[in-house]
Amino acid sequence: MSRADEIYRATCLDILNNGFSDEGLEVRPHWPDGTPAHTIKKFGVVNRYDLAEEFPIMTLRRTYWKSAVDELLWIWQKKSNRIDELGSHVWDEWAGEDGTIGKAYGYQLGLKHQYPEGEFDQVDRVLYLLKNNPNSRRILTSIFNFEDLHEMNLYPCAYSMTFNVTGNVLNGILNQRSQDMLTANNWNVCQYAVLMHMLAQVSGLQVGELVHVIADCHIYDRHIPMVKAMLEKEGFPAPKFSVDESITDFYAFTKNSFKVEDYQFHPFDFEIPMAI
Questions:
Q1: Rounded CA gap, 256 and 260, in Å?
Q2: Rounded to whole angstroms, how far apart are CA atoms 83 and 270?
């Protein structure tokens, strides 16, 4: 069983056994048939992944990691909000008539700001500091821009990254306001693990810990039987992860710059209903 499986199993069991149910309360999400989408949740979940130890991908079910990386590059490299610039269809339901998701995600990372050293967007500022002032305690991004929330088709869930260099090791904290454990948890973990590898490589650093902080960590009511069935399985060892070591420019990475070899996973035989 991979370490990611162990963390996922422990988090889900804690939610199922000790979580708070909002059944009977008024909630915003609903199922396509109009029924309220209730959850059972835990507040303030903190999971730690040692990226130097293994790549944190689940084997209890398949994570489509290449699609996850494609979305990550769409946000962090292209700094885009246009769905026609994304290889998958994960954002289709949030697209407006203009073909964008509004002033959300990549749009926010691409906004330029003035600093003493010059003008940077958020990603280029991180790259600059990691190379020129790695001991800074101010290396972070945030896309939860209150000024633009009314023009976002979806408020950002994973909204902030804080980077910290200890010696020659790059560590990071991913802050997330809300997390659907069945559909999105390992997708996000794999994305930001890849981001950590990218930033470390182009900055001449070693990759360290990814700490995932989740404010509202939940399982939807109609997902509970699926999660329970998945947790009954025994996982496989973590696969081997590698990065094209010739790349020194953050913007030169593609989804084919990464390899996950010997990835074994259990089949997932359920059709997952999506709350909206």
A1: 10
A2: 27
Residue-wise pLDDT tens digits, 196-232: 999 999 999 999 999 999 999 999 999 999 999 999 9
Q: Which amino acid is at 54?
A: E
Neighbouring residues of 195: CB distance < 8 A, sequence distance ≥ 6: 72, 76, 161, 172
What span, in angstroms and rounded, lies between the C-alpha atoms of 276 and 272?
A: 13
Nearest-angstrom CA–CA distance, 95 and 133: 38
Asked whether 135 and 116 are in contact (CB, 8 A), the reply is: no
**Cα–Cα distance, 47 to 160 (Å, whole number):** 16
What pTM was computed for the model? 0.97
Q: Which of 270, 227, 9, 259 is nearest to 1 (CA)?
A: 9
Q: Do residues 81 and 72 touch, judged by C-beta distance below 8 A? A: no
Q: Which residues pair with 174 in a beta bridge?
A: 161, 212
Residue position matching structure tokens 């909630």:
27
pLDDT digits (tens, 9 = 90+) for 5-17: 999 999 999 999 9
217 is catalytic: no
Coil, helix or strand at residue 37? coil
The residue to which tokens 């946000």 are assigned: 75
- Measured distance CA(26)–CA(258) in Å, rounded: 43
Name the pairing type of β-strands 20-21 and 39-50. antiparallel
Output DSSP code: residue 109: H
Of 12, 157, 190, 217, which one is the catalytic site residue? 157
Type of residue at 196: M
- What type of residue is 234? E
Q: Which two tokens stand for residue 223?
A: 């997902």
Calculate the alpha carbon distances from 276 to 159, 183, 273 in Å: 19, 13, 10
Q: Per DSSP, what are the bridge partners of residue 217?
A: 42, 179
In this structure, is the dihedral angle defined by the CA atoms of residues 119, 84, 148 and 171, taken in order, positive or negative?
negative
